[in-house]
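Section: Multi-chain targets

For targets with more than one molecule, the full set of components is provided together so that the structure can be written out for the assembly as a whole rather than chain by chain. Components appear in the order listed by the source. The example entry contains two components.
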Amino acid sequence: MPILIRMSDVLLRLTGVSVRHEVYDESGAPSHGEPRPRDVSAELRAGEVVLLLGPSGCGKSTLTLTANGLIPQVIGARMDGTVTVGGRDTVTTPVPALARDVAMVFQDPDAQIVTASVLDEVCFGPENLLLPAAEVLDRAEEALRRVGLWERRDDDPDRLSGGGRQRLAIACALALRTSVLVLDEPTANLDPAGVEEVYRTLREIAAGRDRAVLLVEHNLDAAIDFVDRVIVLDAGGRVTLDGPARRILTDHVDELVELGVWLPVATLAALRLRAAGIRLDPLPLTPSELAAGLDTLPELPAPTVPTAVPIAVETSVRVRGMTVHRGRRAILHDITLSIGAGEFVAVAGANGAGKTTLAQAIAGVVGVPRGTVEVTGSSGFVFQNPEHQFLTNRVDDELAYGMKVLRRPQAEIDARVEDLLDRLGLRELRAVHPFLLSGGQKRRLSVGTALVTRPAVLVLDEPTFGQDRERATELLDLLDALHADGTTIVVVSHDMHLIAEYATRLLVLADGRVIADGTPADVYADAAVLAAAGLRPPPIARAARALTRHPGWRRLTRLADLPVLETAR
Amino acid sequence: MSDSIRSLRSYNPVVKTLAPVPAMIVVALSRDLWTPAVIGTIALLLLLIGGGLRGRTLLWVVAGPPLLVALLTVSFGIWTDPALVDETTALLTIGPFTLWSGALHTGLATGLRVAAVLLLGLIVGLTTDGPDLVRSMIAHLRVPYRIGYAGFAAMRFVPRFQRDLEIIRLAHRVRGVSGGRGPVTTLRRYGGYAVPLLAGAMRHGDRVSLAMEARGFGADRTRTERRQVPLRSRDAVLAALLIALCFVPHLPGALG
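Its structure, encoded as tokens over all components, is:
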């Protein structure tokens, strides 16, 4: 059957697009780097939801910024090729004028808010386009109703949750009534409840089929069920695959793994099972598909029994009856717990539950009532934003700083610094200013600054926040190695999947109280606790729960529980 | 928002900002007690009648100026150079210290001047929303809207900076930056906060401006203003009244 494509259907057209960012050499002279993305051609049509995939650093976000002319008009980068939106060229049409055709939602909800009320915020875009006041209000009401924020129109945006603020950003984009909507990692800064909220909204919008949506997202588990088409860039920024989402993800799964593209957890599980000789066909993309696939098999081998966590002999952290106030409000109420040496403890809970305060109290960052916290040995704390901790002008000085404060002999300092440079993969960068490192390198360096004094307890606040999967996994592997060496690790995190894979114990906080404390598997089995804390079980646990056969598999929570062949890697 | 003619909130923000300025200048240049006392009292009455003040704000507006005047009177009385006032009456002598009536007079006048200027400033300060002032500046003073809205965005930066600074301070303390006192140590410590604070601020500012342009900011020479801040005859009356305060110094002469 011949397929008829009318030219007018193409809303966003990229032709041979390459972008070279400005880079600075050691003397500070600017030049243009390697093109990322490189020579991308693609067309987006009305009603399509297109997911852009690729290993980190391949230029996905950069490509989204070309869609409304921010590159090359506002951001100093060189662009070759052409981008047209609704027939208008993005190089010659000013960015604000393109707002009639393209709307953008960025990663950080806070950096998109201009005004002091939810309603004013949504009106801001249409007002810029000089629409009559009555139409501005009409559009604002429609957009706010679609994202479920109409009732909160008089509130200050700061009073919304992270998910609420990102839904507000989506409403602002909708109010522009554009034919193209571009979203760059819209959930990377959100807690699980926020991710859920945003995708519920996006799913409804996509169902309208009235616009083209271009999405960059590393959380494939949330996004995959409403994406129609996938464009995959390789590490060099070229388009290597472009086609229907399901077909690309299932037929080319090995290529995607090879490229380092993150896949839905259900798909990763199926790949792991395939290595163990259990074939699932078709390859599942969601937890429910994984469950359905497993249920078609008459028999499954027993899951890997998790290696028993060695019972800690010594107590590393002891908290007794600790209540912490900020101003008049109690942030933590009467917390009592002890953490054994060598545990890997995750602290989870909704925003404002007191997670960060508990972590800071354990590490001695904030003052607590005398005698309520005892730590055996020293402790180190890693803040959420690595830049906040940097003090010197070179990577190696940064690592040495903690030892210099303790006035240790120079030889010992040098030995530790050299060791860490290798361990963190920062040797080549030792003379670089910490602020000039990439996001992942900054994060590793900030962990290194805490490690140099060899603390017995390492506490980290949201170490994977705003990072892609690769960076997150890289960091967690580093922590896992420390844990294996006997360091006690305490991590505040929203990421249920990472917690399931790495932590030996999970503390759930709600309103300043510990409402659950146990192995991640036990906690994930308690639906009431998860609901109270605004958490969701990780994808594997959701799939396991949905099984109708194989009772032995229903308590699985992590990839590592899946059976592997002895010979498999 | 009340639209009653008795409420200062219903008056134009630009008028409330600019009309008190001549009176402020007159007060600041005055040397007598009468001028600041009368103008200050009128400003206070305006605030009490039309300000719709409540609770703690009301308490401060009523009690603050007398406290300020008393404080300045006493401290000037004690600290004024006796050489300047030793021709006036000596009210009190304790040991080597003499309290001169001239010193008290200077203190009282200064206190009244400061209080009066403050009260005139509060007319706009306590009865206006920042966004309305910006809207009115764009509509009535022809301030380019880009500048006005940059002001909006900047206002939202402030709490963010405070939060960031607090975290950076904790983060540096954790790294072992000494908490020493002395001015040099403190200065150096704050220098250390500046780099991460500015780096974060610049990045945030960049992102906000990208987001604003992506939403059509600057597409045209003007933009729709949903809320028209009115400029009415009542504003002319208020302006006339406030400007008329400039004649207060001449009143005693006129009255004989």
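The two ends of chain B are 44 Å apart (CA to CA).
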